[in-house]
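Exercise 3.2. Students should predict the tertiary structure of the chain below and write it as structure tokens, then compare their answer with the key that follows.

Predict this chain's 3D structure.
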Amino acid sequence: MPEDRFENVTVVKKANVYFDGKVTSRAVLFPDGTRKTLGIMMPGDYEFSTGAREVMEVLNGEMTVLLPGSSDWKTFKPGDAFEVPANSSFKLKITAVADYCCSYG
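Answer key:
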């Protein structure tokens, strides 16, 4: 079962803001050096590039995603997750507010 809370972490107060504020997230730092972000995406079409491997977990809403190397869009709902390889980019279509957790590495 996925975690519904994180214990003994540091949260960075300053938000990461993208696409004129339509996508925001905050970093969560773990004692072992790992990092996650918790964020919100407002309706819109987005493209992100990543240097590190990412695992995106949908917490609320839906994300329709075009993953690297794919020609088919796939919709992810709460409880679903998808992986994005390092040094790649992916596209998202968001039709209603989406809440997510992104893990890196």
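Discussion points: The chain has a mean pLDDT of 95. The radius of gyration is 13 Å.
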